[in-house]
TrEMBL record:
Residues 179-268, 349-383 form a coiled coil. One of its GO terms (biological process) is mRNA modification. It holds the Pfam family Wtap. It comes from Striga asiatica. Residues 1-38 are annotated as: Disordered. Belongs to the fl(2)d family. Keywords: Coiled coil, mRNA processing, mRNA splicing, Nucleus. GO terms for cellular component: nucleus. Signal peptide: none annotated. This is FKBP12-interacting protein of 37 kDa. It is found in: Nucleus. InterPro entries: WTAP (IPR033757).
Length: 404
């Protein structure tokens, strides 16, 4: 059948499907009688039926016995059922019945399959595989439920955390950011802990050193106290006779006097034998050098003081010069203003002179008129006096402006 072409060698239980797997069976030698029959049988119908009858029951029985040792086979079948399966498989093989996979999938139980005269071994293996699939499916479902419960547990745990905003779901980015913040804070805390440990170790070392010093000082103090309080026998040994003490002090004073004399004599010898190579000579030369350096420093300071004084005077003179220059510039501006005023006064004098000439001409004309007319002599005299007074006033003004 066409539906059986996709079956593997493992699904071919002992060559039950002779049409599809006849070419793959090997290892069975044919006898000479078979060869003779093959020559007479043109289409090979006898060979096919004989092969199916001889090999199929034995292979199916071996397959069943092999499956009997497996755990699933022992669970679902006993010895009597095994014998029944062997019998049914041999009968089914002789009758050469076939059933497709699609037909097997429509059966609901083992009895339904047996009622359709299918191969018992194939059916049993099919149902065993189906049972395995169901077991795997149940295991996967239990794992899925466990995973869902674990996810719900983590979801509720993150939902109750303070870093989540209210009304928001615990998204992975919030959780990852929070974990990164915690990791960075953990690293900083570890660094602080390492620093604190180092400081603690340093303090412990210093404390141990201080304790060691205190112990040494205590031991030295005990030794000093023991030395300050000698035993009575040792104190008695240290006591001297007064005469011995007096002699000892006299000799001591005598030694001090001799030392003083020796020192004075050595100084005198050094003063007499003064050379630049001697110790005193070197000391005096060094002192002279220091004095010379001090004199040079004092001279430099004096020169610096004079220079400072001169610079101060120069700065004062410069400031005075700038002040005088500013005053001179102010005077120049004032002179320019006065010059302008004088120019304007001169112009005014010229104008007044012109007016005066005009007046003189007018006076001459009036005089001529007076000479011509005698009727208005008195009036003309008054007018003349008035004009003369005006002219005098104008001249006085001109003189005053010129003086200014």
């Amino acid at each position: 059948m066409a539906s059986l072409d996709h079956l593997d060698d493992e699904d071919d239980f002992g060559g039950d499907f002779a049409e599809g797997n006849a070419a793959r069976r090997s290892g069975n030698k044919r006898s000479f009688a078979d060869l003779d029959d093959d020559e007479d049988d043109i289409f090979g119908s006898k060979k096919v039926s004989q092969k199916v009858e001889e090999t199929a029951p034995g292979v199916a029985t071996g397959m069943i016995l092999t499956l009997r040792e497996s755990t699933l086979f022992n669970i679902f079948i006993n010895a009597a059922q095994l014998q029944e399966l062997i019998r049914l498989s041999s009968v089914w093989t002789r009758e050469n019945k076939e059933t497709s996979i699609s037909q097997l999938l429509t059966f609901k139980s083992f009895t339904d399959v047996c009622s359709e005269n299918c191969c018992p071994v194939y059916l049993f293996v099919f149902f065993c595989s189906l049972k395995n699939c169901q077991d795997e499916l149940s295991k996967c479902q239990t794992k899925l439920e466990d995973a869902k419960s674990e996810i719900q547990k983590w979801h509720s745990a993150f939902q109750n955390e303070s870093f989540m905003p209210q009304g928001a779901t615990p998204e992975p980015k919030f959780v990852v950011n929070y974990l990164q913040i915690l990791r960075s804070s953990e690293e900083s805390l570890r660094e602080q802990l390492e620093k604190a440990k180092k400081k603690e170790a340093a303090f412990i070392v210093t404390f141990a050193k201080r304790e060691q010093e205190i112990a040494e000082l205590k031991s030295a103090l005990r030794d000093l106290r023991a030395q300050l309080k000698p035993p009575s026998m040792q104190a008695r040994r240290l006591l001297l006779d007064p005469s011995i003490h007096e002699e000892f002090t006299r000799l001591k004073n005598l030694v001090e006097e001799k030392d003083k004399k020796v020192k004075e004599l050595q100084d005198n010898i050094a003063a007499v034998s003064f050379t630049p190579q001697s110790k005193n000579g070197k000391m005096l030369m060094a002192k002279c050098r220091t004095l010379q350096e001090e004199n040079e420093e004092i001279g430099n300071q004096a020169n610096e003081g004079k220079m400072h004084e001169l610079t101060m005077k120069l700065a004062l003179q410069k400031s005075q010069n700038t002040e005088l220059r500013s005053q001179f510039e102010g005077i120049c501006k004032q002179m320019e203003k006065l010059t302008g005023d004088v120019d304007r006064s001169n112009e005014l004098v010229v104008i007044l002179q012109e007016k005066l000439e005009a007046k003189d001409d007018e006076i001459q004309r009036l005089k001529n008129e007076l000479l011509q007319g005698n009727a208005n002599v008195e009036e003309q005299n008054e007018l003349d006096t008035d004009m003369n007074a005006n002219v005098d006033n104008g001249l006085n003004l001109v003189e005053v402006q010129t003086e200014n």
